[in-house]
């Protein structure tokens, strides 16, 4: 498995297909390593093939896993980890798009915008340099329309589409307060009538519109004759069907079948949370893993049983009560005598195993995300657009940092 060196680059033209093809081969070949989720398996199928790697990962602590989570490729783990890590890095590295200095923002335009969101908006805006100066921005799934307002320059117009009435009203009030020529429209962009709202002279922009929402934009904007658009995709698993439906010819020809669980992999990177939030998240997962051991014993079936998401107040219950109540919820048979401290400890031990075993899946997180973004890019290429695909900010600002720019004459 030689790691083929790929120069990091802003992807354009032929590079798009070449990179897609290489990623497709990598992801397809190693499906058995990244599709099964450690959370739902006591033993992963690949552990029998790579016992040294499995034992090494299982020997590490929860803290070890936490510190490697964001950059699993840097972990010095036994083979085939190192080889796969090198390939993952080579195949998923994409350059930052060139940035330009932005016009100063309007007076106090950022006051109502959370700091991190504002920095994402500034980074996104600084990468847009279309050959034709936009006349009319279309902020797609705009929330309150912060991105659109930041882009709006004298002589331009702005339309914001959003389906949450409260966000539409707040957005309209903000645009009025700043005396900006913006129209905030309450619109479900998945509804049939959304197509009529896109005009050829619109420049659509979408910052973190989820799965179906940004795919719909890509399809409608190309059909409406929009000359240029910019999309930073997110939440690839928020789709209305249970399997991924590719849109480009190359992805349609691929043998890769993606379930909703697979599509959640790119989103499984967590940005550093505070100690309290981390502890709560870990406790919740350790309890679920402990309960999983219990339910296998109660049912006499050695299989994972999905449980519903529970209010965080459940974590305040003593562990035994938590298990009793969850067993009732799942209509399981009487629990009987249990060694609760031992079961709780087993849940924590499993959590350390799960988190460390997940580091192998982590090597496929970014390649899969780029595969998905390239499906969108290649579709737009087929529609006659010139494409530039790069990143618009560093990962800590948002891990969803791919930006797809499309232009056609
Ligand atoms: C992750 S937020 C991004 C908002 C904004 N672009 C930003 O970056 O702050 C996604 C937005 O899509 C909106 N949305 C979800 N489904 C929608 C739909 N079917 N039609 C229109 N907007 C929708 C949500 O209400 C939310 O405001």
Task: Give a quick set of tags describing it.
single chain, 409 residues, alpha/beta, Rossmann fold, seven-stranded mixed beta sheet, 15 helices, 44% helix, disordered N terminus, binds S-adenosylmethionine
Describe this structure in words.
With 409 residues, the protein is α/β, with parallel strands linked by helices. It has a domain of 192 residues: Vaccinia Virus protein VP39 (Rossmann fold). The chain contains 15 helices and 7 strands. The protein binds S-adenosylmethionine. The site of S-adenosylmethionine has 18 residues, from helix 7, strand 2 and strand 4.
Structural class of the helices, strands and pairings?
alpha/beta
Give me the side-by-side strand order of the main sheet: 3-2-1-4-5-7-6
Specify the biggest β-sheet. Answer: 7 strands, mixed
Strand content: 5-15%
CATH-defined fold name of the domain at 115-264 and 366-407: Rossmann fold
Let me know the number of strands: 7
CATH architecture of the domain at 115-264 and 366-407: 3-Layer(aba) Sandwich
């Amino acid at each position: 498995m030689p790691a083929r060196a790929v120069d990091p680059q802003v992807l354009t033209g032929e590079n798009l297909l070449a990179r897609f093809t290489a990623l497709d081969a990598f992801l397809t070949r190693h499906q058995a390593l990244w599709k099964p989720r450690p959370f739902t398996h006591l033993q992963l199928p690949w552990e029998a093939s790579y016992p040294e790697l499995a034992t090494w990962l299982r020997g590490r602590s929860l803290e070890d896993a936490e510190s490697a989570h964001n950059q699993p490729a840097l972990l010095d783990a036994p083979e085939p980890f190192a080889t796969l890590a090198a390939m993952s890095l080579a195949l998923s590295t994409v350059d930052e798009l060139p940035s330009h200095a932005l016009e100063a923002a309007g007076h106090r335009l950022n006051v109502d915008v959370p700091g991190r969101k504002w920095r994402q908006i500034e980074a996104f805006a600084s990468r847009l340099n279309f050959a034709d100066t936009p006349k009319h921005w279309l902020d797609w799934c705009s929330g309150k329309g912060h991105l659109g307002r930041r882009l709006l320059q004298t002589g331009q117009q702005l339309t914001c589409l959003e389906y949450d009435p409260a966000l539409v009203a707040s957005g309209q009030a903000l645009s009025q307060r700043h005396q900006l020529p913006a129209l905030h429209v309450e619109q479900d962009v998945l509804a049939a009538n959304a197509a009529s709202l896109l005009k050829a002279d619109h420049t659509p922009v979408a910052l973190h519109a989820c799965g179906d929402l940004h795919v719909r934009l890509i399809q409608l904007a190309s059909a409406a004759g929009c000359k240029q658009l910019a999309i930073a995709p997110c939440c690839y698993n928020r789709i209305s069907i249970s399997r991924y439906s590719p849109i480009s010819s190359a992805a349609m020809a691929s043998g890769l079948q993606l379930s909703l669980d697979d599509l959640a992999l790119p989103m499984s990177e967590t940005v550093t949370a505070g100690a309290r939030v981390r502890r709560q998240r870990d406790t919740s997962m350790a309890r679920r893993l402990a309960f999983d051991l219990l339910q296998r014993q109660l049912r006499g079936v050695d299989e994972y049983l999905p449980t519903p998401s529970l209010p965080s107040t459940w974590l305040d219950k003593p562990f035994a009560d938590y298990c009793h109540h969850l067993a009732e919820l799942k209509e399981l048979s009487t629990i009987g005598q249990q060694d609760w401290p031992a079961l709780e400890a087993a849940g924590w031990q499993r959590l350390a195993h799960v988190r460390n075993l997940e580091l192998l899946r982590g090597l496929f997180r970014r390649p899969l995300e780029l595969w998905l973004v390239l499906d969108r890019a290649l579709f737009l290429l087929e529609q006659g657009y010139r494409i530039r695909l790069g990143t618009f900010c560093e990962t800590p600002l948002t891990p969803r940092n791919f930006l797809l720019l499309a232009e056609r004459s």
